[in-house]
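Supplementary Note 3. Input sequence used for the single-chain structure prediction.
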Amino acid sequence: MRLQSLLPVAFAPVPYTAVELATTPYTAIQLQFHAEAPYAPDGDSIRMKAVNPRLWPSRVKRSPRDGTVQSRMEGIDAHELHFYGYSQHWKWAADERDHLFKLLQIQKDNLPPDGVPGWALTRGPDLYGRCVSFLFPDGVPLQDGGKYMVGDASFLDLIGQSANVQMLSAGMAYPMIYEYLPDPMLQLLQRTAEQARTEEKGFWPEDKTLEGARFFTTDDAEEILFLPKLFRRLIRFFDTRPKDSEKKGLQGFWEFLDLDPDQLHLASGPAKVLRSLHDPNILEIDEVHHRLRLLQPPENLIFHEREEPNPRLPSH
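The predicted structure, written as discrete structure tokens, is reproduced below.
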């Protein structure tokens, strides 16, 4: 599918100042996970339907057909199973989805039409109306509509039990850490991701993100295990390039990234010095040999939420 005609739907973001971060609680929502057709979950997103829909934060986008909401699992990024007609290393992407199912007690071969019970902890949606959440199977000690603060006793232990952190721990997802997260949660995600990577859990022994790999076409992007955020950028880049373009492979990729830069800072660098993903100290782009290599471990990248979607490109 060509991408030029696909435009994101804009939803106002939830702004978090330093004061709001310290005082805004997470809301627990009892729900059902929906993985049955026509839905197409992957390793970091699944449809959800609240037992009490009034508990959804404002600006969460609900389906007019059945009231379900698309989740965006906080802190993680899995290989893409369905990205505008493309998939990223199908075997691992499917294994990651199946591992998420296992953590949420979803039986792949027995998907009830009324969903599988579970829980979400959330503070609100992203720009596209997806509910940014920590997800849990049924049986966790939460109260529907309950408010939970980061500083509460045992809260961090609870987050450690979430499917999000367990996916990181198993090497079944990459870290995707945003700067609005409170420091204790940010550090938990970093430690978990670093341990999985250094212990070569899950996909890490096959991952090429830090080693580097050659990308010349969308086929390469689909076959190589690489940071999913860069996979999505590569697919957009290759798929929107005019067929009669004289540029080949990664020629022009830096300029493409500069059109819609991802903003971030390095966890180990100077305090919150704002950079872009294509900063030469972060991403090495060799347009001669068509090689791409991330120069920082993924857990060292602390992304800043976009203030508005770019109308020229689809979401993610």
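The longest strand covers residues 116-125. The longest helix spans residues 183-198.
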